[in-house]
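Technical annex, item 7. During the second reporting period the consortium partners agreed on a shared format for inverse folding records so that results from different sites could be compared directly. Each record opens with the tokenized structure and is followed by the designed sequence. A conforming record, contributed by the partner at site C, is shown below for reference.
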């Protein structure tokens, strides 16, 4: 039974608050948003600023997350991403989040009217300019563990859009991009774009709105479209057909404006068991977005339990472009190359230090054995067991520290030259697997 101190924090003002595991987050405009197609076709009833906050949080969700994390984000960083400036940014961000907490996503079926809140919790950390925020767990089916019927795009394309109508149109067409066309009745189009009943009632006004979204989407995103009347009922237009194309002018090929985070890339690859040296080799050879596309392809389309060697499968996917990524060119960025070398050297030194700390434990127990004070087999076995326990605890501490520092974990390949450390690592992995199954 856990103590209250394990569950609550005593704040400076003497009040108790629930302990929450926080994840410091930095949101980049090149992050992916992955959402179910069912979600795209629901009515969201969100303003442009509200949509930006929800989808910024959604971009942090990883395919294998067991639950939504509580993220801590600097308000200034969030405001910059949302395009806010001036002295009132903190008030505007707080006001938008407050509005989201009071809004609901309404899903109606034949017998059930389901109402879901957008934000599960939000806290503003006074004096630090940070907000602690978590998406509602009821949204999980729309953003997590998606293996089929999902659509993905980069934040930067939708964050450039200045109209909710353009954003909604972009999503609806992006969903059918692979089919190259989509047909809407006029009624469906109004519903899915969330046009109020008293707006754009005349066809010429609706066409003007479509022309406006068409121009903005072509100017700012990775797709473009044309549209035409599909069916008429008498003289009245009943439906439109939209023809969708890649917009190569806005699709990055050789260079990205933002320098990719080399450490994040290596950590992602290490998370799935790819050794540091191989990860650096891949990062040197392939574009970061190309690597990310193929990792996400494997994780979202193939159940991990069905892959005997996940690391090997991911490497094969990258080398053969299973995802069909358009970023199949080298990443020509001197800053990224320099950062990659720096991260590589830093991780090399960290790994040497960690292995040395494990070897020190081995040496200390060697000294005990060499003293000749142990007389019986039982005493020797006891010392051997104690040494193993010390090594397991140390390895656990090393991995926890690396995770806290957002560094790649120490891998089996790092210790495989030492038979004793190799055996300890295998036992540690078995213990981790057992703990995950229990939880």
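Designed sequence (site C submission):
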């Amino acid at each position: 039974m856990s103590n209250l101190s394990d569950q609550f924090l005593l704040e400076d003002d003497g009040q108790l608050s629930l302990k929450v595991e926080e994840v410091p987050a930095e949101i980049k405009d090149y992050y992916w948003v992955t959402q179910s197609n069912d979600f795209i076709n629901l009515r969201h009833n969100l303003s442009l600023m509200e949509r930006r906050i929800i989808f910024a949080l959604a971009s942090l969700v990883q395919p294998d997350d067991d639950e939504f994390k509580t993220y801590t984000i600097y308000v200034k960083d969030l405001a910059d991403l949302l395009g806010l400036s001036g002295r009132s940014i903190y008030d505007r961000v707080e006001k938008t989040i407050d509005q989201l907490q009071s809004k609901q996503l309404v899903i109606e079926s034949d017998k059930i009217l389901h109402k879901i809140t957008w934000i599960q919790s939000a806290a503003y950390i006074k004096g630090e300019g940070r907000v602690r925020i978590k998406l509602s767990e009821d949204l999980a089916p729309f953003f997590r563990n998606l293996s089929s019927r999902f659509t993905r795009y980069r934040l930067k394309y939708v964050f450039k859009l200045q109209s909710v109508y353009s954003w909604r149109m972009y999503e609806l067409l992006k969903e059918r991009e692979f089919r190259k066309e989509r047909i809407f009745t006029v009624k469906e189009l109004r519903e899915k774009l969330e046009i109020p009943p008293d707006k754009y009632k005349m066809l010429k006004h609706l066409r003007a709105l479509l022309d406006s979204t068409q121009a903005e989407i072509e100017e700012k995103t990775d797709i473009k479209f044309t549209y035409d009347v599909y069916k008429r009922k008498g003289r009245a237009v009943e439906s439109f057909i939209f023809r969708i194309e890649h917009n190569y002018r806005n699709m990055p090929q050789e260079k990205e404006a933002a320098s990719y985070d080399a450490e994040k890339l290596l950590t992602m690859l290490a998370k799935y068991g790819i050794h540091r040296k191989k990860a650096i080799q891949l990062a040197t050879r392939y574009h970061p977005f190309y690597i990310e596309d193929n990792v996400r392809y494997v994780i979202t389309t193939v159940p991990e339990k069905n892959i005997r060697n996940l690391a090997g499968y991911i490497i094969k996917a990258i080398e053969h472009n299973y995802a069909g990524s358009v970023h199949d060119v080298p990443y020509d960025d001197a800053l990224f190359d320099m950062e990659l070398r720096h991260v590589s050297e830093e991780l090399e030194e960290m790994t040497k230090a960690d292995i040395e700390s494990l070897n020190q434990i081995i040496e200390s127990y060697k000294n005990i054995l060499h003293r000749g004070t142990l007389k019986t087999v039982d005493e020797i076995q006891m010392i051997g067991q104690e040494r193993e326990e010390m090594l397991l605890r140390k390895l656990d501490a090393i991995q926890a520290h690396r995770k806290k520092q957002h560094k790649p974990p120490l891998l089996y390949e790092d210790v495989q030259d030492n038979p004793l450390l190799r055996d300890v690592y295998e036992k540690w992995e078995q213990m981790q697997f057992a703990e995950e199954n229990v939880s």
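The two ends are 16 Å apart (CA to CA). The mean pLDDT is 84. All partners now use this format for quarterly exchanges.
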